[in-house]
Amino acid sequence: MSTVDASIDRVSLGDVVIVGGGCYGTFYAEQLMRAAERGKAEYRRLLIVDRDRRCKAAQELGTDDTCRFIVQDWSDFFDQFLAKAEPSSPDRPDAIVPSPLMPHLMYEWLVRQARKRWPARPVETRPVSAAIGTPYDVAAPDGTRFVSYADWTCPTHCIEPATCPVIRAPRTWEMADAMAGLTRRLDRLNPTTGPVLFICQHRVFGVGMFDVSAVLAGDATVASAGSSGSPIDVVVGTISSCHGAVNLLHLGSVVASP
Q1: Buried-most residue among 49, 76, 213, 225 (CB within 10 A)?
Q2: Cα–Cα distance between 24 and 88 in angstroms, integer?
Q3: Separation of alpha carbons 109 and 122, rounded Å
Q4: Within 13 Å and on the Cβ side, how many CA atoms surround 210?
Q5: Residue 231 and residue 220 in contact, taking contact as beta carbons nearer than 8 Å
Q6: Can you tell me the distance from the alpha carbon of 69 to that of 102, in angstroms, rounded to the nearest whole number?
Q7: Which residues are CB-neighbours of 178 under 8 A, at least 6 positions away?
Q8: Confidence check: pLDDT of 1 > 50
Q9: Cβ neighbour number for residue 116 with a 10 Å cutoff
Q10: For 252, which DSSP code?
């Protein structure tokens, strides 16, 4: 299927972080460059982050003032990048383009932020005990649940249109709704809030992304949830309409200073 939608308006972006410089990251960068050349997108910079200085993007894409290749561990990069980030203009947002093969990086960042905020408080990943209700639902060893409404092989770089290209019928599901329902069911068992969602949506030429402001807002939600000092869980997901990775962030009781 085509990844180009000729009907879209011009997309304005600030800095765009592309996670990974392999085949996916290289494709996303090339698509954004192509969109800019055709007047469908503008951005301040593309920041392609990978630990391998010899990855596909480093070898095939040139770098200039609008495209930088950063050799760094993803967690280290986001610790530095998000520490300096501020809510950007909605007319020109900074954004993050995730890779379908990356770990749940934004959740991991929220965990590190919570541990910095409450150094004497238990902060840990708990199993998601309630059913999510999607056809595909697999728990990884680190506690992340990978879920999908598709029990088929999706087209590469599918933009998840209103009509599913596989079943050739209207898409009747939305992962954000499933996450909201999950949060309500978990809250019946233990105090649970959220969901904190980083929703990857198609913006231009087949490239999906979520805004940096959503990540900062997610951290604010965790801070608010833990402000009472009582135990609480926070549902955190990085999702699209069809797929997602979800974790349960547990904040234990604040330990009183002696």
Answers
A1: 49
A2: 26
A3: 16
A4: 19
A5: no
A6: 18
A7: 132, 133, 134, 147, 244
A8: no
A9: 10
A10: -
CA 4/CA 206 separation, integer angstroms: 6
Q: Dig out the tokens for 74 from the structure.
A: 């993803």
pLDDT of residue 9: 80
- Which residue is it, tokens 């879920």? 147
Strand, coil or helix: 76: helix
**Sequential DSSP letters for 88-138:** PPTTS--EEE--TTS--HHHHHHHHHHHHH-TTS-EEEE---S----SEEE
Write the DSSP assignment of 51-72 as a string of letters: S-TTSHHHHHS--BTTEEEEES
Question: What are the backbone angles phi and psi of residue 27, rounded to the nearest 5°?
Answer: -60, -45
In the numeric block, which tokens belong to residue 200?
């990857």
Amino acid found at 245: A
Is there a contact between 132 and 246 (Cβ–Cβ < 8 Å)? yes
Q: What is the pLDDT of residues 24-75, one digit of tens each?
A: 999 999 999 999 999 999 999 999 999 999 999 999 998 788 999 999 999 9
End-to-end CA distance of the chain: 63
Would you say residue 257 has pLDDT above 60? no
Report the C-alpha gap between 137 and 131 in whole angstroms: 9
Among 220, 219, 249, 217, smallest CA distance to 233 is for 249
Distance CA 115, CA 219 (A): 12
Bond preceding residue 195 cis, omega within 30 of 0: yes
pTM of the model: 0.91
81, two tokens: 């990048």
